[in-house]
Amino acid sequence: MEKLPPLAPVAIIISLMVVGAIIYGGTNSSLNGDITGNTNGTISNTSVPFPEMGLQSPSSQTAKPTPPPASSSATSQAQNVTQALVAPPKKDLPSIIKEWQPNVALITCYWDNNPSINDQGSGFLTTLSDDTVIVLTNKHVISDSIYGGASYCDVSFPGIPNSETARASNVNMRISSQGYDWGYLALGLDAFLTNNNSHGITAADVAGKKLPQCSEFDDIGANVVILGFPDYGGTSNITATQGIISGFDGSYYTTSAEISAGNSGGVAIDPDKNCYLGIPSAVVYGKYGNLGRILSVKFIFSQ
């Protein structure tokens, strides 16, 4: 542990006595906009609350040493230094990825009215304030512009050992009614993710971690990491790509982090703040060059 360097001692010689003196310096958020079904439009619009997810402050503290009598200024300096020294260490990137990995879903959707179509994407496992377990994703992953909403989607979690595949039918799908490219699949509290149901991990267990969402817009140049299952990366584990926030485009960030087919609907995080930045969306080739886009969390959830 670093220590403050002491000031130079002042020696005062009085007769044969030497005296040395050293002075030490010592509200719940909700889904942004209405939601609606994506096939027949029979689901009435409603606002779905989202649980409050704030950055957690460190719970552990180290006892402060008792300083020798000093001036109030020196005492204040010593307290500030002590608080800085007991701050928790910053997590490295592999640790942050491992923390988010179990919540990244692999989604494969199917259409009964056109069996030749199936769409693969990624998603983010979380909960609403009523404990509904959802997988948040892009609208275009679960709804086709021509054939409408998928008949059903299979959802798996390769980041959880021995995980089972859950199935969400069309009636459990919701999309934004305001035109934003987000939607979600409702899984239910009893969706088990492991084969041993008596000691298994439920979707609610994983989603209930309440990973924090970023409370402020990131600046240009801020770091970003994309987690998902791109087509080129396989489905046995997530793929992580890294870049920076390159700019803004309406409700989207643009980013130098690679985003491709299969990443859509996954998880974009700010590794420096360890918070959920938004939903990565695949680039429309030729329109944005090599820049990917991230739908900001601010346009998914309102505070």
Protein described:
With 303 residues, this protein is mostly beta strands. It has a domain at 93-302: Thrombin, subunit H, CATH 2.40.10.120. The protein is built from four helices and 21 strands. The protein has helices at residues 72-85, 93-100, 139-142, 203-207; strands spanning 10-14, 17-21, 29-31, 35-36, 49-50, 104-110, 118-127, 133-137, 143-144, 148-149, 152-156, 166-169, 173-176, 183-186, 223-228, 239-249, 252-255, 267-270, 275-281, 292-296, 301-302. The strands form five sheets. The chain has an eight-stranded antiparallel beta sheet with strand order 4-13-14-8-7-6-11-12. Strand 7 and strand 8 form a beta hairpin. The chain starts with 9 loop residues before the first strand and ends with a strand.
Features of this protein?
303 residues, mainly beta, 6-stranded antiparallel beta barrel, 4 helices, 21 strands, disordered N terminus
Mean pLDDT: 74
Described by strand count, sense and barrel closure, the largest sheet is: 8 strands, antiparallel
Q: Which class of secondary structure composition applies to the elements?
A: mainly beta
Q: Taking Cα atoms only, what radius of gyration do you get, to the nearest Å?
A: 26 Å
- The CATH architecture term of the domain at 93-302 is Beta Barrel
Counting H and I runs of at least 4 residues, what is the number of helices?
4
Backbone shape: globular
- The helix fraction, in percent, is 10-25%
Q: What is the terminal separation in angstroms?
A: 40 Å
Class of the domain at 93-302 in CATH?
Mainly Beta
What is the string of SSEs from the N terminus onward? EEEEEHHEEEHEEEEEEHEEEEEEE
Report the portion of residues in β strands: 25-35%
Uncertain residue segments = 1-29, 38-68
What is the fold-level CATH name, i.e. the topology of the domain at 93-302?
A: Thrombin, subunit H
**Lateral arrangement of strands in the main beta sheet:** 4-13-14-8-7-6-11-12
Count of distinct strands: 21
